Request: fold
Amino acid sequence: MASKLPRLRCLYSSPIINPPTACPISSRSFATEAPEHNPSIRRPPTTFRDRLNSGPSFTEFVSSPPSAEFSTPLSANDPPLTDPPTSEETLRTALVGPANRKRQITRLPTWLQTPIPTSPNYKRIKSDLRGLNLHTVCEEARCPNINDCWGGSDKSAATATIMLMGDTCTRGYPHEPEHTAEALKRWGLGYVVLTSVDRDDLADGGARHFAETIRKIKHKAPGMLVEALTGDYAGDLDMVDLVAGSGLDVYAHNVETVEALTPMVRDRRATFRQSLRVLERAKGAREGMITKTSVMLGLGETEEQIWEMLRELRKINADIVTFGQYMQPTKRHMPVHTYVTPSVFETWRQRALDMGFLYCASGPLVRSSYKAGEAFIENVIKKRKAGRDISMMQQPGAIDTKKIVQSA
Reply:
């Protein structure tokens, strides 16, 4: 046993004869020596959080010009955070891209900037739409006027454009006409617009679905006025008769642009002349039918081309024309050729009225379905139904259509 004891000590205790000395800790030198930490000196508190909380809200930030407090330079050598004041119709440009491949772009004009919709009525209408599985052009096309059209003080003051046969084929939703009529009755609107994407995959182009929806609306809400914005049904004018004869009040079909640009802007199967035939056929389908069309400016059209287009529309007795700014939806679409100024839009509005159009809404943010235009059309239809002559609208004390557009 004695002979095994050192071995056990070697395994478990391993006695150290000469303990190693501690290694000296060498200090690492830096190019710039850090200052010695002094715990008695405290960092002054920042006021950034207080300044942020007292600043503009998110809606004000994206929709309103910044105040002087938040646009001051950081130092004497720094540039201002905001652009210098510009005139109302001055277009601003900017250089974008890598340093060796800079390109100049035109920034979005101030007159095309709109606030984010936040009103309670907007939220209520959106909730109703989702509950009934309905779609609107207002949302699908990201219409800049959605805050105005949906944000009335109550639902009766709001307007919406319902999209039938939307992104999902309606053959899977046979109750859409009933749901649409129910939603509109619930809102208590006085005027509604129905539209759809082109449904060339259907034999009738969706005309029967349009007609059924209109009849359902008229059954549930007889006093509601209905406008239908349709396609050209591939030139099948019998389908135009079907929709126009379903109790419709306003038949709308958009020529979109001047005739010379139609092959580049629209589908090759849609022609300017075919659109004129659709409007002309709808006009003759029922006595008193109001026809309407819309045009986008900013695609490169000339003044003479616009004049010629208006003359062709007057030949077929089109009642209403609207002008709006073309906006490029995606990079795959045609770029914006020109941002048309508000004064030019006002010029074309006056010219259209001088040519004899019943009504013309013209402005950068005007779209085919425009709240101000619908208010005017609703008034005209009611006067016609009451047996009054339309010429009374031009007499002193009548509605000033320009004021309606500005107030919308």
In short: The longest strand covers residues 290-297. The beta strands are 93-96, 103-106, 135-136, 161-164, 191-196, 225-229, 250-252, 290-297, 320-325, 359-362. Residues 371-385 form the longest helix (15 residues). The CA atoms of residues 7 and 323 lie 103 Å apart.
